[in-house]
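Task: encode each sequence below as C-alpha cells.

Item 1
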Amino acid sequence: MTFLFTLYLFLLGLACGSFFNVVGLRVPLGQSLVAPPSSCPSCGQRLAARDLVPVLSYALSRGRCRHCAAPVSALYPAGELAAGLLFVWAYLRFGLTAQGAIGALLASLAVIVTVSDIRYMRIPNKVLLAFAPVLLALRILYPGEHPILYYLLGALAGGGLLLAVALISRGGMGLGDVKLLAVIGLVLGWPGTLLALMIGSLAGTIGGSIQLRADKRSGDGSARQPIPFGPYLALGALIAYGCGDALIDGYLNLFT
C-alpha cells in the first residue's frame, strides 16, 4: 500500500511539476497560465497531448521538438522530475501530516522559483504572495513545538539579513531573494532560516565556481554571467526543513 501511494505521489508530482514549469516561465512575463496553449518556442507549433507527458515526452523525442527538431530546454523535465521526487520525499519524511503538506508546498515553491530564476533571473512577487499566506496559515494552525512568534522571527531574520546584503552590495543581491528568504522563514523559524542561508550560500559558492570555470574553458570567462541565488536558497530551505534540527544539534555538539 505504501509503495502504491508513493508511486501515486510521484506521478502527481510529475504532473504538478509540469504546471510549475508553466508558472515559473509565464508569471514573470505577465502571461496567462491558461492561454495561449503550450507551443514550441522555436516554431510556434501547438503541442499535442503526446508532447505534454511529463519527462516521458522529452525522453521519447530525445529532447527535440517533433515538428522542427529544435532542442527543448532540459529545464522542463528537470522541473517535473524534481517535483515528483520532492513530493515523495515530503511523504516519506513526514508522512500524511501537516508537516508533510508544508514540506510539499515548500517543494512546490522551490521548483517554481528555480525555474523562474534560472530562466529570467527573477523571482516573481505574485508567486511569493500566493504561497506566503497559505504557509503562514498552516503555521498558525500547526505550529509544531514552537509558538508562531518563532516563525515570524524567522521571516524577519531571513528577510532582514538579505536586505542588508542587498543594500550593501548595491544590486549584487536581488530583492526577490530577500522576499524568498522571508517566506522561507515562515516555514523554518529563525534558526532554520539561518541554516538555510548558510547551506544556500555554500552551495551557491560551489555552483558559482563551477560555472566560472566552465565559462573560462568555453572562452566566455571575460563576460561573467550573473548567478541566480534563488535555486540555492530553495535547496538550503529543503535541507533545513528535512534535517535542520539534526544538523544544528550535531554542530552544537562539536563544542560540548
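Item 2
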Amino acid sequence: MPYLITVHSVTGGEIQLRCAGPWPAPGSNLYAMRSEVLKDGERTELVEECRIVDIQKKAGPKAITVHVVLDRKRQKRCSFLFLKKNGREQVFFRTESGIKAHRSSSYLQPKPLRFVSEIVIDSREKYPWKINAAHVIRRELPAGDYALCVQERIVAVIERKTLQNMLANLNSLEAYHTHLAELTTFPGAEVVIEASLADFFNPEKVKPMSATRCTRALADIAAKHPSLRITYAGNRKNAQVWATEYFGAVAAKYHGVEEEKLEQGSLLNQNSDRGFTGGVVSEIRHTVMYVLPERFQVAQVRDAHPEASKVAIADCLKALRGEGKLTTSGHGRGTVWVRAKATGASP
C-alpha cells in the first residue's frame, strides 16, 4: 500500500489511510487501512493536494461512512466506509461509480416499520391510507395528515392531497403559502399528491382553472418553500405505498443512529419564532413521556418549556390522558400527573 491519503476537516479532524492506489478504478473499490505513523525509513512525496468542498459523516448501527466532495471537475466524489467484522476494522475507499456497480441491497431493510414508535393519523382525515405499521393511532395533528413519532417527537410529516384538494389550494395560493410555512417547521415535511404532475398540465383535468395558472402556482410553491418535498404519486395506491416506505426509512434511520436521533430531535423547535406551536407540542410530549419523573406536576412542564403557553401545555396533557398515556390524582393546583407504566421512561 504505497499511497497515503489524508483527509483534513475544518473542525480539526483527520483521517489517514494507506491504499494501493490514489483513486479506485472505474466500478471498483480500494481496500484501505488506518495509518497513524510512518514506518521506519519511509518518507512521503506529495502526489496531489485538493481542497474539500464538502465532507459529511454518517453513522449507522454497523458502519460509518465519510462522504467527501473535492474541488475539481473529474473524480470529485468519494466516500470511505468503515466496517467492523469479527472485531477488526475494515475500510473501503469507494467512488460514486464503484457504489453503483456494487448494487448493494443492504440499505433496503425488510419490514423497516418494525422500528416505528407510532404512526399518527389526523383525526380529521377521512378515508385514511392503510399504512402497514404495528402501532397506528388517531389524534389531531398540529400540521399535516400523517406523522411519524419517535419518543413522542414528530420526526416526519406527510400532508395528503388529492387532485381536487390541491386545485382548491392553488386557487387560494396566498393562504396556502401560510399553511405550508407551518408545515415546513416540522422535520421531514412532505406533501404527497395522489396525481401526476402531468395532470396539472392537462386543461381538461384542472377545469375551471387554467393549466398555465396551475403550473405557475406549483412553481411558486417550490420556490418559496425549498425545504418542502413534493411527491406526485400518481394515485392513492402509490401514495400510501410511498408513505409506508418513507416512514419506514426515517424510522430505521432514527432507530439505528442514536446520536443523530438525539441531535436532530433538539432541532425540532428551531422555527418557533414564526409563531407556530406544532414543534413546541411535540417537544412537550417528549418531555412529559421521557424526561420528567413518572409523577410530576404542571409547574415542572412549564419550567421545562417556558416558551409554551399555558393553553398549549394543558391541551397536550389532556390529549395524552385521552390516549391513555397519563392519569391524574388530586385536584386543582395539587394535581399530580402519572405516566402509564406501559410507556415508562426512555430506555
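Check on item 2: The first helix runs from residue 96 to 102. Residues 3-102 form one domain.
End of task.
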